[in-house]
Amino acid sequence: MSKLEKAALGEPATDVAAPSDAQDAFLSVRDLRIHFNTDDGLVKSVDGVSFDVRRGQTLGIVGESGSGKSVTSLGVMGLHRAANATVSGEVWLDGQELIGADPDEVRRLRGRKMAMIFQDPLSAMHPYYKVGTQIVEAYRVHNKVSKKVARTRAIEMLDRVGIPEPAKRIDGYPHEFSGGMRQRAMIAMALVNNPELLIADEPTTALDVTVQAQILDLIRDLQKEFGSAVIMITHDLGVVAEIADDVLVMYGGRCVERGPVGEIFDQPQHPYTWGLLGSMPRIDRDTADRLIPVKGSPPSLINVPSGCAFHPRCPYADLPKGNVTRTVRPELEQVEGGHWSACHLSAEDRTRIWTEEIAPKL
Amino acid sequence: MSETNKTDAVEDAAGKAAIPQQASAPEGGSAEREVLLRVTGLTKHFPIKKGLLQRQVGAVKAVDGIDFEVRKGETLGVVGESGCGKSTMGRVITRLQDPTSGTIEFEGRDITRLSTGKMRPMRRDVQMIFQDPYGSLNPRHTIGSIVSAPFRLQGVEPEGGVKKEVQRLLELVGLNPEHYNRYPHEFSGGQRQRIGIARALALKPKLVVADEPVSALDVSIQAQVVNLMDDLQEELGLTYVIIAHDLSVVRHVSDRIAVMYLGKIVELADRNSLYEAPMHPYTKALMSAVPVPDPKRRGTKSERILLRGDVPSPIAPPSGCRFHTRCWKATEICKTTEPQLLELKPGQRVACHHPENFADQAPQDTVLLTAAKEASELVGEAVLEESAETSAAVAAEVAAAEPAEAAEEASVEAEVSEAELETAEEPESEEPEATAEAPETDSQESTDK
Amino acid sequence: MAAYIIRRVFGALVLLLVVSAVTFAIFFLVPRLGGQTATQLATQYVGKDANPESIAAIKKNLGFDQPIYIQYWDYIKGLFVGADYKFGPDATHCSAPCFGYSFKSHVEVWPQLTQRIPVSFSLAVGAAVIWLIFGVTTGVISALRKGKPVDRISMFIALAGVSLPIFFTGQIINVLFIYQWPIWDSTDYVPFTQNPGEWAWHLFLPWVSLAFLFSATYARLTRAGMLETMSEDYIRTARAKGLRESTVVVKHGLRATLTPIVTIFGIDFGTLIGTAVLTETVFSLQGIGAYSIQAIRDNDLPIVMAVTLVAAFFIVFSNLVVDLVYAAIDPRVRYS
């Protein structure tokens, strides 16, 4: 598919609050919705999310459990396989639309053009197969080569991700690896086909901080080396600040704020983002004062609150005139450049609250 | 929804129920306070049995000789990576597990070998909060019966009856007292952790040991629970031992902090001293590894110390200083002599031969140290090993010297050599250990496992 | 690993010894404790025309006048070195392994057993192959089509299979295929060595009825296991690699599901060899289960004792095999 065609097809999506530079995006997600029909009701795990990731760039998706951040990534990969799932919207990967595509076509892209690493490498690797076998399998699905060639390739990858004595460790089982080594092996498996998009779903949450630092470094180095697009899903704003170029903050299955990482941390425009920043104890500062938590709990995805999903927990919900926060769902609006926010508060109010009330307390 | 009015509830409860026994924990003044819990030479080994006759062939040295004390009203934070023995330590000091050796004194009384029967009254005073708010509550019991269990087990009849007391507790932790008859699955993760806290507080304990109390919770909920624990400490004069892997949380909640590595405390210091000027290289590495939520600091990569490889096995911990296999400052003495946990600065105890921000504890070895560091800069690991080996003779002598004495004798000399050491570094880097973060660090891991 | 095997084998032997002691005690000690004298016990073995001399002779020959532990020792010794029984004028040598001598039917027990064990074993093997294939396949399909008609129907049949006793299904099959439409003229046992084709053909109906019962259980087990496995993280990983769904199901899903099933299978199989009483009775097969029933009816203690020991041996042995196999199929289990 030519660039022109791609742009043309991408056109209608742009009015769904698309970022400006959709053309050179390697991955473009437009108004993605993933709903699950359960006995308890319709679970709107992802309810209209759009974003772009360019080659060599890292998008951080931040949110709490149930915010839809993991389901979004599974949707991109075509792994939301439940029979009760309905998916709509568009996912453009390098000019190819995936939501409407033949599932077998998408399968052939998985692991080759787009790959994924998961939170807990112990449960994400098959316990009964050797690490090498699993990497070889990943390579041979997409490359018609002998086992021997694939094995050489697997050793090469294990070496590349920093596993000592790769020729020996290739015959180890996942449980024989330490947590950090296992995650390295997982990364080796994901990168064995040189994918151009890497989705990392909380890749360091189960790891110790020193190992986390190693893994983040590794991902960063590999990204530099291969120029791939990376989506980093995490709940840890520290990790995002460390590795992301752009940030997408999700709440209740929707994107509440999106923008370049510097602006998200310097000039956050959504009360939920403020809440996240205020909830985090900081290692770099002496916060003798109390943390500023977000009151209440994350919403149920079956009964998402009306209007702005965040309004029951938002301290500023009564600020805008009338009942607008409870009745009208705020759409993403451009703050400036690539910075978007979905909030009913006026721009002046947001700037004032952030600079006067929130920022000084952080 | 009960969480939405949590602050009110807590304030409410503070007014009518809680009697503040102690003012909020001031910083620094902790040294004068009465010692509530004293742990001396504590070890916990889990035997490994093998062979036809199941003979003991070794042991997992989960906790291997630690000393510390907890003073009334303070919060002692315990940090370390997984497998450092911090959780085992928590279970041993609450006597959920029996120590292998060492003593535990609570309020001056030795409770190390108390029988189950004699421990029972002590259990009122020492309570534990667990990490998993899902696993630690029996799904078949109502909240009321879970929170009132301590009364039944201890045969205590609170004033005004059990139900009233339980409802008071639920209110205290910010839950709706009307939820008395609900089951755990009807609550969110944060609420369940509140239930766990209510249960722990039922008998008005003096010491609460919390093992990763917030690590299973979402960020926004985590902050609620951290604040709740703060408030309760102020209101009830509680003493906490908080075990956590998250250094940011520990910094926020603790007055003093113990850093554990492979069953040992490597540094034990006041919060500010520890975070502002960590003395043990491991502490420093650990803290530098925590991602800071400030994108502007990215790129200042030189601050980060990347430790190589994994934590060694606690079955056969490294000789001498346990951290020497991963330490960029390690010299010969570190391999042979175990450093003692010494108070090098007021309120800061460190077990290291070459502490940061202080005169070297094994100054004779700094010659080796500088040599080794230069070598590692130039050629890498292989040469480092070699140069260390060639000077093994010198090191053997050094190893014989008692580190504490040596420090005093030669502290002046040490300062000089530390200055040398700094000049040996790349001029633009502020931190001497920046060199440990070489670009090929990842592949270098192959050299140590 | 070697130490582990030795320890397990040793444990298995001890267990068998305990089983034999308990069984022996039940059959020979309990009647004594219940007040029966040695003479009364001996009388059972003489039959109708008992006279004081023959009773006394039996009592002496069988050791009923000895203390119980001597009797037990003699029994165990017989297993390894054989024993001599004097009965009337003749002396019978019962060579090792001597499981005793039936004075009711005047035969050594062991040769009887060696005739019957192959029957029971053949029955169990054939049925096992069928129920594994059908049970596991049905379970996998049900799990993949959870909630769909295929799943509901097969689980209904499975429920029926679990609920219907073998003497019901077996009789139905008997009536239908032997009497109504006589496709099978006989279900008599033909040794495998003699004619494998006949062997399988004659055993087919008993296999099917026994397998029906077990398939149902295994289908349910497999379905539950598959449902759990397919929601594991490593299945998601397998899909993320771009593997075909069939590969994901068979190589990643089924592989993990089968591990616990193998364990249960080992125990079921071992147990079945000595206890397929109903099937053997319904289809008139001369297996050890049916043999034991006959012996119990005749109060023929040596046979009951021998069958108990043989059955126990198969159970203990298959358990042992399962434990060892487990290490091979689940690399996380390594015995040291």
From TrEMBL, chain A:
InterPro entries associated with the record:
AAA+_ATPase, ABC_Ni/Peptide_Import, ABC_transporter-like_ATP-bd, ABC_transporter-like_CS, Oligopep_ABC_C, P-loop_NTPase
Q: Which residues form the ABC transporter domain?
A: 29-277
Similarity comment: family membership: Belongs to the ABC transporter superfamily.
Family annotation (SMART domains): AAA
A single Gene Ontology biological process assigned to it is: peptide transport
Which N-terminal residues, if any, form the signal peptide? none
This chain's source organism reads Streptomyces diastatochromogenes
Cellular compartments annotated: Cell membrane
Q: Name one GO molecular function term.
A: ATP binding
Cellular component GO terms, alphabetical: plasma membrane
Q: What is this protein called?
A: Dipeptide/oligopeptide/nickel ABC transporter ATP-binding protein
Provide the primary localization.
Answer: membrane
Q: Which keywords does the record carry?
A: ATP-binding, Cell membrane, Membrane, Nucleotide-binding, Transport
From TrEMBL, chain B:
Record domain ABC transporter: where: 37-287
Write out the entry's keywords from A to Z.
ATP-binding, Nucleotide-binding, Transport
User: Which SUPFAM superfamilies does the protein's record reference?
Assistant: P-loop containing nucleoside triphosphate hydrolases
Any single GO molecular-function term of the entry would be:
ATP hydrolysis activity
For region Disordered, the annotated ranges are 1-31, 394-449
Q: Which family does it belong to?
A: Belongs to the ABC transporter superfamily.
Write the protein's name. Answer: Peptide ABC transporter ATP-binding protein
Q: Which organism is it from?
A: Streptomyces diastatochromogenes
UniProtKB/TrEMBL annotation, chain C:
Q: Provide the protein's localization.
A: Cell membrane
Q: Tell me where in this chain the ABC transmembrane type-1 domain is found.
A: 117-326
- Entries under Pfam families matching the protein: BPD_transp_1 (PF00528), BPD_transp_1_N (PF19300)
Keyword check for Cell membrane = yes
Among the GO biological process terms of this entry, one is: transmembrane transport
Q: GO CC terms for this protein?
A: plasma membrane
Q: How does it sit in the membrane?
A: Multi-pass membrane protein
Keyword Transmembrane helix listed: yes
Its transmembrane ranges are 9-30, 121-144, 156-179, 199-221, 261-283, 303-329
What keywords does the record list, in alphabetical order?
Cell membrane, Membrane, Transmembrane, Transmembrane helix, Transport
Which InterPro entries is this protein grouped with?
BPD_transp_1_N, MetI-like, MetI-like_sf
Question: Which superkingdom is the protein from?
Answer: Bacteria
Q: Which family does it belong to?
A: Belongs to the binding-protein-dependent transport system permease family.
What is the protein named?
ABC transporter permease
